[in-house]
Design brief:
The complex is a heterodimer of chains A (about 325) and B (about 425).
Chain A lengths: L2 E10 L9 E9 L3 E5 L6 H8 L7 E6 L2 E2 L4 H7 E4 L11 H11 L4 H14 L15 H11 L7 E5 L7 H16 L3 E6 L2 H7 L2 E6 L2 E6 L1 H6 L4 E6 L6 H9 L3 E7 L2 E6 L2 H15 L5 E5 L3 H9 L6
Helix pairs in contact in A: 3-4, 5-6
Chain B lengths: L1 H17 L1 H21 L12 E7 L5 H11 L3 E4 L1 E2 L2 E2 L2 H9 L5 E5 L3 H10 L10 E7 L5 H37 L7 H14 L10 E6 L12 H31 L1 H7 L4 H30 L15 H24 L3 H18 L11 H7 L3 H13 L5 H25 L4
Parallel strand pairs in B: 1-2, 1-5, 6-7
Antiparallel strand pairs in B: 3-4, 5-6
Amino acid sequence: MSNIVEANKLVKQYPGSPEPAVRGVSFAIQQGEIFGFLGPNGAGKTTTISMLSCLLKPTEGSATVTGFDLIRQPAEVKRRIGLVPQDLALYPTLSARDNLLFFGRIYGLKGSDLRQRVDDALKMVGLSDRAGDAVETFSGGMKRRVNIAAGLLHRPEVLFLDEPTVGVDPQSRNFIFENVESLNRDGLTVLYTTHYMEEAQRLCDRVAIIDLGQIIALDTPKALINSLGGGIIHLGVPPEMPGSLIAEVERLPNVQGVAHTDGKLEITAQHAQHALIGVIEVFNEANVSITSLEILEPNLETVFLHLTGKRLRN
Amino acid sequence: MIRQILATTWKDLKILLKDFGGLATLFLMPVMFIFVMTLALAGMFSGGGDNPIEILVVNDDTGTIGAQIVEGLQATEGFAVETEWDGAALTRARAEALIADQKRSIAVIIPADFSETIQHSVFDTPTDETPQKAQIDLVVDPALSSQFVGPVKGTLAGLSQQALMTGVAPRGIDLFLDQIEQTAGASLPAEDRESLREQAVRSTAGGGDTGSVVEVVQMQPAGMEIEQLPNSVQQYVPGWTLFGVFFISQTLATSLLEEKKVGTFRRLLVAPMSRAALLLGKLTPFLIVNLVQIVLMFAVGVFIMPLVGAPKLELGLHPEGLILISLAASLAATGLGLLIAALAKTAEQISGIGSLLVVTMAALGGVMVPRYIMPDFMQTIGLISPHAWALTAYQDVLVRGYDVARILPEVAALMGFAVVFFGVALWRFKWD
């Protein structure tokens, strides 16, 4: 499959900011895939999307989108991408239909073609019956759906969805998932940013985990989770743990790796529950007390925690 | 690009139409001011306050009566008499030019034959050939209110009477005595006696009616044409209309900030739309609202104000000039709106910066108080306000009957404001 987006060491340093927001990000998105950007708020996801949509000029690095260079051919890029921004970028006092008609006209659509596409988009996001109502009367979820529809009218080749489910009720969230999946089935390439690991896990073919402006892991959700083995055990332990005890834990069957940081032991296991029995025995024999115990499910959240020592949402 | 501009214009007009409160403010506020100020100040809006009325005086009189009148004017409280300009004695041509340039508003011209004519008209037997009355020309800026002209006219009449009493009456009495001596002992023919008595009465007690001897003729400088003198409607309809026109700059700035805040601005920047198209589409609806505002406000002056007892707004001899001024003023106003949007970061700053700029400019520009009653330095400072240029241009058309060619300097100044506003705004504007 060919790459529809290729980013090569993108750097963005905002004027007056001590640290770059994005520090040398490289990745490729294949045509037809849903590519996820998973990371906490402030990780650099929106800045990267802004560079890819020609809103921000990269400080360093380069990228092509649909084969066109971001910096040299912005007009070509803009015509072929759709951006669903994190903000509800709609005119609140105008109706859903008027909003879509306006954005359609901006993309050069007109006449019956424009009206047909607006009707289709409203139908797709399930708002045909509320088309004439002012957007300000909508729930958060409905506004999000109009927001998505507005990014699709001109039938882009690649859609950038920036946190499309923030502040959305579960029903609208499911609706949005189904929309994204259905669009993808019809051939649309999607770059999906989120700080919800369930979304990345459910929707994305591949996920780039991003933190502090850098991609720290990039693979299919399954491969990323498999890297954890069967799960992770966090043990609270005394600060002055004998090194022999750690070595004993490492030798246990099922245990893949052990990391010790002051007062905390992180054990990567093929099967967390089985490993736990052996770990507790070793501690009992050594007469070392365990102050806390946590078994982390093998999921993307745990991957992020494992890689950064932080949780996705604080 | 045109389609994108039209789409944006149409979208913003729709948004404006949905905001009844905001729109009502834009239209009702100037109407309110027009009504209140025009009616409240109809009788005294140009009263002049404590500032003396500046009067240019050209005394060409070869006799003494003219000089007496000048002295009288100089001694009158509330008048500031100027007989020189730039160190040179004033001439009629210079005085008229100063009024035409709106440096001064009123000039008193006493002609060379003034004293002589008075002597003739008092002592000679009237004939058809000799002029019967001495004339003082009162050259007045047609835009000057009659409230200003009245006191000057009245004072001139009074001073003429005084001059007549002191300058002419002694000669009349001398004549009278001579006649008595010459005819002493002899009885005067009844006809002569009658004639002598009449002369003495006319030259002394008869001075109460100087109108029969001295006539004050009001005129405008050569080249300044007019149909009528300005009134409160001609001051306040264009004045408050301009206030409303420039007030829109706040609405425009708020609309731009709102687009940025909501994120639609970002969405439009991602679209294949040039920044020029984005801004043109954003500014055009406000330009349209401005023009509708102006038409409605002038319509209020023409059709509504007469119904409430105010004078009707006359549109002058060349009303087409009003269109040009309105376009230029609206461009300056939308430029100001963009400038405020570029400088302000929050809605609070917009209303702060906006109100400060708009109200100060209106005050300096003569919207609230006519500029011609302001001291010279205030009039000079007022030139930094686009309102001043626009109001002068409007009054040139409405009051002075100017054609398009003669308002071009003011229109050019307004376009200059628009260029500066747009220039600084685009320089400072933050696109992301």
